[in-house]
C-alpha cells in the first residue's frame, strides 16, 4: 500500500510501525456550531482508509479528538448567553449525529481537549525545560527560532511566518505561537505552574496523540487547511520534546462552492440535516466519498443528484439479484478494486470497478446466468462495504425503510390536513374536528400555527 505523505511531498510505501497494527489520529471538530458537509468530508474520507486497512487484516486504533475549549466556542456561547460547556456539548452531539447518519464508524476513542489538561501541562513543562518554550505575562509561548527546520510540513519560511494570533505583551517574537493562555475574567481556567489559564489549540492534539498512540505513531490525518499553522506547530512541539510523532501526514481536500472553501464565514454552508432533505444519507455518504480524498470537491446540486443516481443504480442491481436469485452476502473485492485503494486510496478508480461489476451482473441477470449475477452482486457488496455504502447493509436498509414509511405517512397526513382546512373554510367545524380526532387516534397531533397546520407524532417527532 502506498500513501501520499504531505511531509515528504510524495507517495511512498506504507509500512506500519508495528506489524499488524495501524495507529491513526484524525483532527476532529471544534464544536462551535452545526456541522456542514465540508466538516464531515474528512470523517468520510478517513473512514474509508480505516475500513480498507481493517479489511486487509490490520488491527486499527483510530483516534478522533473533540476541541471543546476554544476562542470561538467561548465567544459564541457568551453571545448566546449560554454556558460554554453546554454550548460545546450541544454541538458535539450534533457532530456525533452527523457522523452516525453518514455511517462513519465510531473512533476507538474520542478524547476531549478539556479532559487532557494534565498531559498538556506536562508537555509544556518539557518544552520549557528543553529551552523551546518560555513564559510571558502568564502566557506560555513556543520559541520558533529554536527549530532550524520549522516550516518543513507547510513549506513556510521562518522569516515569513504569521501565526494569525493577536499581539501579546509577553511574546518575544511574533513568529512564536501560544501554548497556554493566561486566564481572563469570566473565562474557564485551570491551575498551572504559570498561573490559571487554558490551553492553546496546537498543544491539545500533541498531548492527546501521545496519550493514546504513543510518542510515535503511523498516520496523522486532517483537512488541508490544518497544514499550517496547526499541524506545523504540532510537529514543532513533538520534535522539540524529543518525540518521533507521526510517520505519515495525510490531508483531505476541501468541499468548495464557486471555487471557495465551504465555511461559515463565507455563508456558503450546507448543514447535514438540510442536505438530507434532498438525498438519503447513504447517497450523501457516496457523494462525499466518491472523489479522491486529496482533491477538491466542488459542490453542486447536479453533482449531488448524479451521485444519488449512481448509488441508486448499485442499489437497484443488488435488489434485482436478491429478488430473482436469493440472499446476497458480501463476497470478494476485485483485484483492480484492491489495487486502486492500495494506490493512495484512489476511490474513483475503485468505484469504476464497482460499476463495472454492476454492469456485468445486470447483463448476466438478463441472460439468465444467475450464478454469474450472484457472484458479481457479492463482489459489489464487498466493495461497497469497504466504501461504507453497501446498500444491503442493514443500517442503510432499515433507515431507508423508516424514511420511506415516514414520507408515506407525511403524504397521507397532509391530505387529511388539506381536507380539514377545506372543512374549516366552509365552517364545517364538526368535520374539521372529526378529522383532527381521527388523526389523534392514529397517534398524530395537529397544531395550528402562524405558519399553518403542523403535525407531529405523539412521541414528539415533528413534521
From TrEMBL:
Obligatory cofactor(s): Zn(2+)
Positions contributing to Zn(2+) binding: 27, 205, 230, 234
Motif ('KMSKS' region): 261-265
Principal place of residence: cytoplasm
EC numbers: 6.1.1.16
Entry GO CC: cytosol
Pfam name, any one: tRNA-synt_1e
Protein biosynthesis keyword on record: yes
UniProt cross-references to SMART domains, sorted A to Z: DALR_2
UniProt-listed GO biological process terms: cysteinyl-tRNA aminoacylation
Ranges spanned by the short sequence motif 'HIGH' region, renumbered to the chain: 29-39
Entry keyword set: Aminoacyl-tRNA synthetase, ATP-binding, Cytoplasm, Ligase, Metal-binding, Nucleotide-binding, Protein biosynthesis, Zinc
Statement: the UniProt record of this protein carries the keyword Iron: no
Binding site for ATP: 264
Cofactor note: Binds 1 zinc ion per subunit.
Domain Cysteinyl-tRNA synthetase class Ia DALR: 336-397
Source superkingdom: Bacteria
GO MF terms, alphabetically ordered: ATP binding; cysteine-tRNA ligase activity; zinc ion binding
Subunit description: Monomer.
NCBIfam families: cysS
Stored PANTHER family: CYSTEINE--TRNA LIGASE, CYSTEINYL-TRNA SYNTHETASE
Stated name of the protein: Cysteine--tRNA ligase
Source taxonomy: Bacteria, Bacillati, Actinomycetota, Actinomycetes, Mycobacteriales
